[in-house]
Amino acid sequence: MKFETSNKPLSIFSFSSLTDIVMLLLIFFLLTSQFVIQTGVKVKLPGAKNNEQLAPAKLVISISKNERIFFGNKEISLDELAGKISQVVSDSKESNLVIHSDKDAKLDIIIKVIDAAKGIGINKFTIETEKESF
What we know:
Low-confidence stretches: none
Distance between the termini: 63 Å
Strand content: 15-25%
Number of helices: 3
Radius of gyration: 26 Å
Shape: rod-shaped
Largest sheet: 5 strands, mixed
CATH topology of the domain at 47-131: Nucleotidyltransferase, domain 5
């Protein structure tokens, strides 16, 4: 019995498997990339192994390593902080204060910011961290 084989090159290439691979790569990169754009004051956040991504918040306080306090992009003093926070809280009913503190900032200034916020009735605080890569 003789089998016939043809050594002709394929004239039609199926792109369906290639499009599947490209689609999977596209989905992978979209899901793994982070779309959070941080505006405002540049601070070097402390690292944590287990951190969560936050939804954008209106109450964001940034503390630089030389103990300067920023509300949004504007520098304010510790005395002005309670007034600014209470103004935003009354406008938007936001109750979570997000603190972007430089990892070299002293704990004392962070405690003073939290104390000023507690003085006007905010009880939820989030200290933002960076995910450490090991």
